[in-house]
């Protein structure tokens, strides 16, 4: 319910604030352009966007709507509003919630794999991410709200699971809730409940049991239903770019569809390489010290270049919506400016292919410029210190390329319908090519090239378009783009960012085939200092505090004694600190030389000795252990399937060492002939 409501509020706010850059509604300033003209009686069919209640800034301030001075004033105010929104967003992120930046999907993948990033799913992050998401999308930057909505939904999931002890105490259960939350996030982002569940399964989740599958489906369904009842776009659809096509596609069209797949794969590879190089530069040079300045500069460049071109001026979702659209009889867009046959006596809904008019040619070069601009600017935008999703810009790049290919094929078929490829299916006066379908296939191909999704991508796209008969073109494009992109590098953008940030993430898709044993990987190695351990009944509180102060480990194995080294359990560092602190506050007579007992019942103490500290209740009595001769292949599998952070190595009950997730990752890098120290863990 909560992500659905938040998504509805975000959609409505973005709609209003995007229009605020161009003008204001006089009858009620909280109306967007479209809502403002709904109530007006003075709108005509041709000028459906113009109504006296809606005034551009130039009309309001200098009472001019045309001419150079009005254009310059509108241009200037557009840039000012964009800068104002972006500055506010980056300041909020910087001051209140540094974790609210980026898309959030790489971090959620890492969290679901068993690594804890404290505060990443906290209440502040939720609040600031929701507010700044509205600001950055409205500022016209080349980013989307779809990725961050997954993060927002996961924050909601984390908040609700902390209210119930069944989930807050159990890490595994909490991760299942987060998987369902990720599904709900995609469900409201695209209006695709099934696509959301598959996205969670394919991209985000690490461990996805069957019961989580239907619970995620239920969560996604409720989220989509909530958004539908809010109805943010007023068209009873969950997304702005919902379309329906009525013409079938033909076998010969698979060739351009596959070409679009190749384009998507190449763009995905180019984007990942350039974006990672730029982000690495940001991390290692002085550029990273000025996040606010960087956002301001990129916003200024975006706004200055975007305003003159009508395709980049509007919000990216509206652009995609127009590119997906089929040209009906009632369309007023430039892309539909075809030359009509005056003596056409066909029904209105089935308009035959027509020669392109001047508007289409203008639109073609404007789209070409917009495509180049989007490709370049998105590389620099993704990864700045503001919430930024990647789905919408990638889809826009693909949709622009696809629409241009579609118009090309359509004109080719119209002017050369006697060619052998067109002769069978494209008679003169028939409606054979739908350029909007090419835009949709291109969008799927580019999104697949960047994220390497396949199944969930195709399902999301056909839930968007309601067209089951276009599954084959979508599958062809998605698979081609994945193959082409995989030829240049196996990592999708999210995995690449995980590696760049140095998160300890074991990719489920990687194979580990080397014949090494646990004893080769465990610490301590020969010649290193022995393992830091606690004993069950011979250490004082002071000894334990010293050990905690001198080391920064996450927890300590507990053994019977330093000599026998028989393992009893594992104590978490955080719980040890809390237990000692609480015991001192409660004044149970615990002092620095009190003995710490991890046994069930401590022995009788002499009458004058200090009160003992019993810590049996914080001891994990069944820590995960493997023997020293366990093959590393099995150990890696255990780490993956259970999302472990550490595993103890024993031989016939005696503790030998410990393997952490970071040791496993270093070992895997070493086996792949990389420098194990080059994997930095922040």
UniProtKB/TrEMBL annotation:
Q: How does it sit in the membrane?
A: Multi-pass membrane protein
Which Gene3D superfamilies does the protein's record reference? 3.10.580.20, 3.90.1280.20, Clc chloride channel
Q: Where in the cell is it found?
A: Endosome membrane; Membrane
**GO MF, one example:** antiporter activity
SMART domains in the record, alphabetically? CBS
Boundaries of every CBS domain copy: 522-586, 619-677
Q: Which GO terms describe its cellular component?
A: early endosome; endosome membrane; Golgi apparatus; plasma membrane; synaptic vesicle
- Name this polypeptide is given: Chloride channel protein
Organism, as annotated: Apaloderma vittatum (Bar-tailed trogon)
């Amino acid at each position: 319910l909560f992500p659905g409501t938040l998504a509805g509020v975000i959609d409505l706010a973005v709609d209003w604030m995007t229009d605020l850059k161009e003008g204001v509604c006089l009858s009620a300033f909280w109306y967007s352009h479209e809502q403002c003209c709904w109530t007006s009686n003075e709108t005509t069919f041709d000028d459906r966007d113009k109504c006296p209640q809606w005034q551009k800034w130039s009309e309001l301030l200098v009472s001019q709507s045309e001419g150079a001075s009005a254009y310059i004033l509108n241009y200037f105010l557009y840039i000012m509003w964009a800068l104002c929104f972006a500055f506010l967003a980056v300041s909020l992120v910087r001051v209140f919630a540094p974790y609210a930046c980026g898309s959030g999907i790489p971090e959620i993948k890492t969290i679901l794999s068993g690594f804890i990033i404290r505060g990443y799913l906290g209440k502040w992050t939720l609040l600031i991410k929701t507010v700044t998401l509205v600001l950055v999308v409205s500022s016209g930057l080349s980013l989307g709200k779809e990725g961050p909505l997954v993060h927002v939904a996961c924050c909601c999931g984390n908040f609700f699971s902390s209210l119930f002890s069944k989930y807050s105490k159990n890490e595994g259960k909490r991760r299942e809730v987060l998987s369902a939350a990720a599904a709900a996030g995609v469900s409201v982002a695209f209006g695709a409940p099934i696509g959301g569940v598959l996205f969670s399964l394919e991209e985000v989740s690490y461990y996805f049991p069957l019961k989580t599958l239907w619970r995620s489906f239920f969560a996604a369904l409720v989220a989509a239903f909530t958004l539908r009842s809010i109805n943010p776009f007023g068209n009873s659809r969950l997304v702005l770019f919902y379309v329906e096509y009525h013409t079938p596609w033909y076998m010969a069209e698979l060739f351009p569809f596959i070409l679009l797949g190749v384009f998507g794969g190449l763009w995905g590879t180019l984007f990942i390489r350039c974006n990672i190089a730029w982000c690495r530069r940001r991390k290692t040079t002085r550029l990273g010290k000025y996040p606010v300045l960087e956002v301001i500069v990129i916003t200024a460049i975006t706004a200055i270049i975007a305003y003159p071109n009508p395709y980049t001026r509007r919000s990216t979702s509206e652009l995609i919506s127009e590119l997906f659209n089929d040209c009906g009889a009632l369309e007023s867009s430039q892309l539909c400016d075809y030359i009509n046959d005056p003596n056409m006596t066909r029904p209105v809904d089935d308009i035959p292919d027509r020669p392109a008019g001047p508007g289409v040619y203008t639109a073609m070069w404007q789209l070409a410029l917009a495509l180049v601009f989007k490709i370049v600017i998105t590389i620099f935008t993704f990864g700045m210190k503001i919430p930024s999703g990647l789905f919408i810009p990638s889809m826009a790049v693909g949709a622009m390329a696809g629409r241009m290919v579609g118009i090309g094929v359509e004109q080719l078929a119209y002017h050369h319908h006697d060619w052998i490829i067109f002769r069978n299916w494209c008679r003169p006066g028939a409606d054979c090519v739908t350029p909007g379908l090419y835009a949709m296939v291109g969008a799927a191909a580019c999104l697949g090239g960047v994220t390497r999704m396949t199944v969930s991508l195709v399902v999301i796209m056909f839930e968007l378009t309601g067209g089951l008969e276009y599954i084959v073109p979508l599958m062809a494009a998605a698979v081609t783009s994945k193959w082409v992109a995989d030829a240049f590098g196996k990592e999708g953008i999210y995995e690449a960012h995980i590696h760049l940030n140095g998160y300890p993430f074991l990719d489920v898709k990687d194979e580990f085939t080397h014949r090494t044993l646990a004893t080769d990987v465990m610490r301590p190695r020969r010649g290193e200092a022995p393992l830091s351990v606690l004993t069950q009944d011979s250490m004082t509180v002071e000894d334990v505090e010293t050990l905690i102060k001198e080391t920064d480990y996450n927890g300590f194995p507990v053994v019977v004694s330093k000599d026998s080294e028989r393992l009893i359990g594992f104590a978490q560092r955080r719980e040890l600190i809390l237990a000692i602190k609480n015991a001192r506050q409660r004044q149970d007579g615990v002092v620095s030389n009190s003995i710490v007992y991890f046994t069930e019942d401590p022995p009788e103490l002499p009458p004058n000795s200090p009160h003992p500290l019993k810590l049996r209740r914080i001891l994990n009595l069944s820590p995960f252990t493997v023997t020293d001769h366990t093959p590393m292949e099995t150990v890696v599998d255990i780490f993956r399937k259970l999302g472990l952070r550490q595993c103890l190595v024993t031989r016939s009950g005696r503790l030998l060492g410990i393997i952490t997730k970071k040791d496993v990752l270093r070992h895997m890098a070493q086996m792949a002939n990389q420098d194990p120290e080059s994997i930095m863990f922040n």
